[in-house]
Amino acid sequence: MQKKALICGVSGQDGAYLAELLLNKGYIVCGTSRDAQMSSFYNLVRLGICDQIKLASVALTDFRSVLQVLTKIQPDEVYNLAGQSSVGLSFDQPVETLESIATGTLNLLEAIRFIGAPIKLYNAGSSECFGNTGEQPADENTPFRPRSPYGVAKATAFWEVANYREAYGLFACSGILYNHESPLRPERFVTQKIISAACRIAQGTDNHLYLGNLSVRRDWGWAPEYVNAMYLMLQQEQPDDYVIATGETSKLEDFVAQAFACVGLDWQEYVTTDSSLLRPTDIAVGRGNPAKAKEKLGWQAQYIMKDVVRMMIEEKQKDYL
Ligand code: NDP
After folding, report:
1. Which atom belonging to ligand 1 lies closest to the Cα atom of 10?
2. Which CATH class is domain 186-218+249-281+305-320?
3. Which residues pair with 54 in a beta bridge?
């Protein structure tokens, strides 16, 4: 029997890579967008898989809409990747962020419980839940101290999933994923902003890049590997939560230096810090310990920050050929 997956937020970076992965595994893949008639599904087109996916319009904040799609598609697995995903934007749209993430996840859990079928749910959790980790890498037992409306919303959704698993026996998992990047990342995110600017400056079509705090430290991985961890979580005997990270943390400044070095430039000649780009509260250090994922899922990141930068630069440079 072919398995059927429903990916909520299929138009995004992770949705596109996950759809590709599941199609390659022989799944029937269905995906949702808030407005499937209007979305270009650019990422799916770019991966050459758009015509293989059944697409539906679903607003996760609308219970009727969620119930309808689950009843119609009858998926074996649901991947909830939808919701406002920018930490920066969450300071300007806190209610939209909370509702799209927390109410969206709750509606999925309630609908699965209501239907009563053995539907497995993956929830896109985030390392932003931890807040500052300091030098001690966070694992699945580390308390949450989020420092953004986005982190607060993700923490809420995490506990919703944990509660429904415990209270109603749902097969529901949260992946607590650290940052993961790819050529499909939009320029609103600082990593793609840096990659694009480095390439433009190298081509002579731009001459400067303005950034916020360069001393923040993050763990950056490669998105196509991270979606495999999502899939693996739903193939286990028991539902559980997992931290997904490379285990290597670098300064944003190192990411910038690496990107400019890839195009043969010294970043210090082109980058200026701009205090208007600072967030009201930010995470100084984000460190993750993916040991449980390695032990239980057999998952381990193959690519670390410098590989991610190189692969993003190589892909961006194709725009200039
Ligand atoms: P994207 O932003 O690329 O995709 C998320 C999708 O959610 C969008 O394509 C969009 O689909 C939908 N969406 C956007 N805004 C809203 C909103 N306000 N309300 C409802 N739906 C919305 O995210 P990623 O693919 O990068 O990430 C996938 C998930 O993983 C997200 O939940 C993200 O928060 C989480 N995550 C990502 C990390 C990363 O480093 N990439 C790290 C940790 C967690 P449409 O417009 O078609 O409706």
Report:
1. 9
2. alpha beta
3. 30
Residue 299 has pLDDT above 90, yes or no: yes
Residues whose CB is less than 8 angstroms from the CB of residue 92 and which lie 6 or more positions away in sequence, other chains included:
none
How high is the pLDDT of residue 321?
84
The residue whose two tokens read 């490669």 is 222
The set of catalytic residues is 126, 128, 150
pTM: 0.98
Compute CA distances 303 → 159, 172, 253, whole Å.
30, 28, 19
> Ligand 1 pocket: which residues have CB below 6 Å?
9, 11-15, 33-34, 39, 81-85, 96, 100, 124, 126, 177, 179-180
pLDDT one-digit tens code per residue, 212-265: 999 999 999 999 999 999 999 999 999 999 999 999 999 999 999 999 999 999
- Third-level CATH fold of 4-180+222-244: Rossmann fold (3.40.50)
Domain boundaries, the chain: 4-180+222-244, 186-218+249-281+305-320
Distance 110 CA to ligand 1 centre (A): 21
Ligand 1 mutation target, pool 81, 93, 158, 190, most atoms within 8 A of CB? 81
Cα 224 to middle of ligand 1, angstroms: 15
Tokens of 238: 């028991």
Among protein residues, the one whose CA lies closest to atom 38 of ligand 1: 179
